[in-house]
Amino acid sequence: MPTVAPTPHVNVPVDKPVHVVFLGGAFWGHARSGVHLSVELCIKSPNLAISFVMSPEFVKKARPQFEAILFDQAPNADVAQDVRRRFQFVSVYPPVNYECQQRYANTPGQAVEEAGVAFVAFWRKIHQEPQELPPPSMLIVDLFADYEREQLKSVSDVPIVFFWSSSLSHFAFYYGSKELNALSGPFQETLDTITDIEELEDAQAQAWSSSSKDVVKMGDVPPLYRHEHTCTQIGALAEIGFLMRCASSSAFKKCDAAIITSGSWIEPEARKHIRSYWDTILQKPTYAVNVRVSPKDRADLALSTKRLQALSPPEKEIISFLDNALATYGPESVLYLSFGTAFAPFTTPWQVDIFIDTLVEYRRPFIFSQASVQPIMNPGLEARIKKAQEAGLCGTASWIPQEAVLHHKALGAFVTHGGWNSFCEGIAAATPMIFWPFAVDQPFNAALFSEGEEPAGWQLYETRGPAVAELTPYVFRDGPRKCGVTGETIPVPTGTPEALRAEFERVLIRQAAAGSEELRKRRMRMEVMRQKFIDSTKAGGETDQAMVDLLQPIGCTFAL
Questions:
Q1: Taking a C-beta distance cutoff of 8 angstroms, is the pair 226, 248 a contact?
Q2: Strand partners, 336
Q3: Is 327 inside a domain boundary?
Q4: Which of 158, 180, 214 lies at the terminal end of a domain, its last residue?
Q5: What pLDDT digit, counting tens, does each position of 298-326 carry?
Q6: Pairing mode, if any, of strands 489-490 and 481-482?
Q7: pTM of this prediction?
Q8: Are residues 251 and 367 in the same domain?
Q9: What does the CA dihedral 515, 520, 522, 526 come to, rounded to 10 degrees?
Q10: Do 248 and 313 sit in the same domain of this protein?
């Protein structure tokens, strides 16, 4: 098997293109964000050419995603065609003699290691053999890229830019100054003091899964206990030490700069901190490039005839379910539950049973994404889903056309794990979100939108499971709380089935009810957020300026 798949002819319509290579990494959510950014960069600069490097499996998934983004973002057909000529996907494979290290075999670490080994071979190849494009002027790498700085720099000494497809607050939690009292301190200390790779990975895994009650204060997000970044106490994920070692060493030791897909319009304090620490102290420039929202009418795009015709039969059934719910139950009647592609209540699967039972009892229609729930699927859950479908209350599929669902008039609220991709898509649709977070960036995103006097969403706490009785969330440190809008008392969470059902009834059935005042207010706040998002991408806005600052030093020109 070759190391690099044959690449398509790139017909770059400029005399002196500036070539950037983007390593998409081993996780689809990250790669998807990278494709979106790449399209925006190519639209912004007419002499930029991008080679986007991924596994063959991801390239297959990414091609339609690329076309959808281009359809949404390009101002006209001529610009879209021009971008197609300057962008290429490159499929890479590990060398034929590659063998995964035993400790990473059959874990997420294997995919990361394979991607890194394949990329290094590709990097050497494009500098040793004749290419249609000039040598790269910049390399952008996913946060979980496994590489050695010296190995790449010895081939070509170009800027290495760390790509962080998540929030500024989460970035600061991992890679901010030690004074934040977050994970950045343990990550830096272990990198500086431990040379043995396995020992380093063990130390970073231990730090990541710590149940520390140290209070972390980052400004935009309300204070949290450190342990709340794994709020469901899922423990150390498979090879989390390897992943954290890859990311923290890339951030602190290997990269020259960082792209962060958020902005000061939503996280001003985190942006100030990162500028102060990274740009000033570490001398690594950071670029807040948030490009997920189009100023175009997204509902018309997402639900256009062309887009709907391209859906698979199961996806079309989801749209039909929404159309029927709109006719039967009215606007805002449907809830949409998605845990993303990597998370689900794996240790507490009974929580999904209670979710379905509650909605069926109160006859609230819902859509249930099964993208990540196969590990918790059981005869009881299958029977519940079937019962709900037979009652006309459930639409479900393994893959949901999320953008179309979020823009449909039948949808009332988005019950989400709160990953950054879903978070941004919720803002793009101005859809109120009900957060069911598990770990990593999700608790930060949930807290950002669900706390304060004017929340734009809700956060579920009983979903943290029985461990929440001992690891009480910071917001309940003084006991029960009052809901700022209704005045209802919110008890200190215990994680029991009875408490979870009560929380579902309060949030899903009463507060987020179709036509409720609370749903209306949250939707209005989401619309304000969406407009701020759009403004950041306009000429002179934060995102627009960040793209100029990123590309201008390497010789890119910009469309007027």
A1: no
A2: 367, 414
A3: yes
A4: 158
A5: 556 666 777 777 788 999 999 999 999 99
A6: antiparallel
A7: 0.94
A8: no
A9: 110
A10: no
